[in-house]
Every structure is written in structure tokens, then in C-alpha cells.
Description:
Number of domains: 2
CATH class of the largest domain: Alpha Beta
Distance between the termini: 31 Å
Structural class: alpha/beta
Strand order of the largest sheet: 3-2-4-1-5-6-7
Number of strands: 7
Shape: globular
CATH superfamily of the largest domain: P-loop containing nucleotide triphosphate hydrolases
Bound molecules: guanosine-5'-triphosphate, magnesium ion
Number of helices: 10
Amino acid sequence: MVENDDPAAAPVLRTTYTRAGKARTIGITGPPGSGKSTLVAALVAAYRRAGERVAVVAVDPSSPFTGGAILGDRIRLRDQFLDEGLFIRSMATRGQTGGLARATGRMAAVLDAVGYGVVLVETVGVGQEEVDVVRLVDTVCLVTVPGLGDDIQAIKAGIIEIADVLVVNKSDRPGADEAARDLRYMLSLGASRTGWTPPIVRTTATTGEGVERLVKEIDAHRTWSRESGEHDRRRLGAARSEVETLLRDELVRRLGDRRGAALDALVAKVASRETDPYSAVEQLLGVSDRSG
Ligand SMILES: Nc1nc2c(ncn2[C@@H]2O[C@H](COP(=O)(O)OP(=O)(O)OP(=O)(O)O)[C@@H](O)[C@H]2O)c(=O)[nH]1
Ligand SMILES: [Mg+2]
């Protein structure tokens, strides 16, 4: 219900929201095929060994067919499927725009509230929406691989600014040193906004090599984030965006309910350029004010 933005989810979110806030939320993002799911599986194993209950939310806007059956194969967590301390959910956007980050954030809150100590969010960090998704987590891990070459430039533009930990996965392949060097160089170009310099961790997700170090670096970021105030800043930003989104939705809904005909008429006038959208909004808000 939460995932589908079903109105029936509201009571669920009301009860769970104030109980959330304890989980560590970790985003795993990076280009297709870089080994995100394999890395998620390795992280799940590490956190489960440490006694944590773990939830995984895989966000896949590109595939409307993503579902439990396909996920079993894709996410490579087959041996972990019978583990009661592990919850896995794959979600697709089903064509709606703008709702992905919201649905993911809400799902993370519910999972947090029901006692998952670690919530992992996997997403392909390409579009703005996915950048928004990953912005909601406490720690963002950007996964790259050796030999990406120019592709790395494209990643840089979108997401490197919000990466807290940089991962060079498939370090069993040639070129891991160069990849790490490229990342270090890219980091040196942009001044850190927050005072945190993302560490660069090499992993081989398929064997688990480097995963313990990754867990340590994620922990180190979390500690820094709490002490520096960055954690509070992010939570505040996420809360503001959630409240403002709901406010916007509710405003549109109420206007539609009470002044549906007026809204339609004004939209038509904007379309035919009899009036402009700014005046239309002013008029609608004025009308709404008078009607209470
Ligand atoms: N050699 C090597 N192969 C790896 C490593 N990690 C993952 N792979 C392989 O890379 C392929 C893609 O791995 P996935 O984990 O599905 O990658 P992904 O980033 O989740 O892919 P999408 O979700 O489709 O974007 C699989 O065949 C993995 O077995 C690694 O460290 N070394
Ligand atoms: Mg994957």
C-alpha cells in the first residue's frame, strides 16, 4: 500500500512514522551491471552476521516487470530467502513520475519502524529521480567498476556530489588502480561542501573481498555525520520535502474537491492563453480562501 501510494497507507504511516529513525539507511547506487545487487547481498551477509535485521529495497525504474519472481534471480540473494531477519522488496515506478523517492522514503520509514536496523536501497543512479531517492538515505555508496572510462564522467555529473563512499567493485579485474585514481582525481576537482572526503573502497562483491572495509567506512561516515550535524541537516531536508509534498497534494486535492469546475475552467483558459498560470493560481487560492 505504501509503495503504491494507496490512500489506505496513511494510517500505517501515521502509526509508524514517529517510531522510525533508528535504522541505518544505506544507498547503493551506480551504473547498470556494476555489481550493486551482488554487493547488497554481501552487505546483507555481513550485517546479518553482526546480528542486524536487514531490509532491502531495490528501486528499478527501468523495468516495469520487476517483481518477486524476477527479483529472486536478479538480486542474487537466493540463499538468504529463508532468513526471517531479512526483508527484500523490489519496486518499479509503474510510470508515475515524482513518486519514486517519496514511496522509497516511506517504505524505509515503515521498515525502520518495524525493527529493521539496516535498510539498504539499491538504485541505478542515472536519472534525477534516482538521485532524489538516494538523497533520502543516511549514507550513499556509489559503485563503479574498472574500465568505465568516459562513462565515469557521466556518473560524475549526476551523483558523485552526493556520494559519501566510493566503491570500485570488480577489483579482481584489471584497471582497479586506474579507476581508484580517476575517482580520487575527480574528488580533488570539487571542493567538499560538508568537510567529508569520501573514502575509496575496492571490493570484489562476488567473493566478499573488501566488504568488511566497506562496512567500516559506512560506519565511519555515519559517526562523522552524526557528530558534524550533517545527519540532522539531511533529516531536516527530507522531512521538509515530505511535508511540502503532502501539503501540495492536499491543496490540489481540496481545490479539486471544492472548486473542481473552476479549476477545469481556469486550466482551459491557461491552455487557450486567455490567462496565464500565475494568475490562475492566484485566483484559485483566492477562491479557496474565501470558501474557507
Ligand atoms: N568479476 C566480478 N564480477 C562481479 C563482481 N560483482 C558482481 N559481478 C558480476 O557482475 C554482474 C552484474 O552484477 P549485479 O550485481 O547484477 O549488478 P547490478 O549493478 O545490480 O546490475 P543492475 O541491477 O542490472 O543495474 C553479475 O554477473 C555479477 O556476478 C565482482 O566483484 N567481480
Ligand atoms: Mg541490481
